Amino acid sequence: MRWDAQRLDLVEPETLPGLPTVAGLLRSLQVPEFPGLTLHEVRSKSALNAVPKGSAMPFAYTINTFRGCSHACVYCFARGTHEWLELDTGADFDQEIVVKTNIAEVLRRELGRASWKREHVALGTNTDPYQRAEGRYRLMPPVIEALARSGTPFSILTKGTLAQRDLPLLAAASRDVPIGMGVSLAIWDDDLHRSLEPGVPTPKARLELVRRIRDAGLPCGVFLAPVLPGLTDQRDHLEKAIAAVAEAGATGITVVPLHLRPGAREWFTTWLSREHPRLVSRYRSLYGRGAYVPADYRQWLSARVGPMLAAHGLDSHTGGVARGVGGLPGDDAASFPAGSLPDRPVTVAEVEEPEQLSLC
User: Fold this and answer.
1) Up-side HSE of residue 130: CA atoms within 13 Å toward CB?
2) Residue 254 φ then ψ, to 5°
3) 191-219 pLDDT per residue, tens
4) Region for residue 267 given its phi and psi (left: phi exceeds 0; alpha: psi -120 to 50; beta: otherwise)
5) CA angle 161–159–172, rounded 5-degree value
């Protein structure tokens, strides 16, 4: 396996005691609070991932505290990334979670370099930083603190209500650096939610997260994603979702149709054939030429939700401060909702006196 660079020394005191290693390279463990999951603790050599210069993404760097995701969303576009570890994109992606135990330490070192330009850093663009394992490892608080102390603007996209734990820290950080917050939800039917997103907090719980974020004085854009053709694109479903998000105080909404990249495509197609076989032929038609729905479906969906968004004042979008308007991770045809990206640049002068930062 391609994990040589992340090998754990078995006598390192800061790592948790584990079960037998995977191929002798990783500390792996299974704990009672996370039945069915195997946690692979690794020592990461880097924390900041540079986004290719030609990318449509409106940020220059990303951070992934985990690989794999216990949210287990059947449709997750990031499933294909597990192949790099020679793990499968189905059950392994959901159950074999790689934990970068030293990521805050590495991040502080990288942010301290004289060459660091304090460009926008995005978290949650691949796997969710507030998935279940974060409750055990608490990787995010020192990551947030390191970014804020260095004067680095950042954004977080999550489905995890565990983010509520860090709202005081995020509110303090927002006084020193621009912050964007995004929450993803789209499925309002409880049975469909349990079937498609078995490890994700309920839509109602995520609406409460939006409220808590806004109550903390932070912006919060909502990603109504993915919209599933024939399942969640009905007018009443969309109206109910948008009205509820507006009532929760979201600063913006982006409505994104399902896209099916390799890895997710096979997993989702198997689910669809089992749970909704009547829709298989329609999906073959919609996704027969690639990962994205045809332009005419996008236009139809946009025309359907446009008046709903306008009625609630939620039809604005933002491109952030780094690269101008860009696409979403996994879907470069969609825009970020207002509030989900930092809204002003940081200058060096703003961070010349670290002791004045409001974080403690």
Assistant:
1) 23
2) -115, 130
3) 999 999 999 999 999 999 999 999 999 99
4) alpha
5) 55
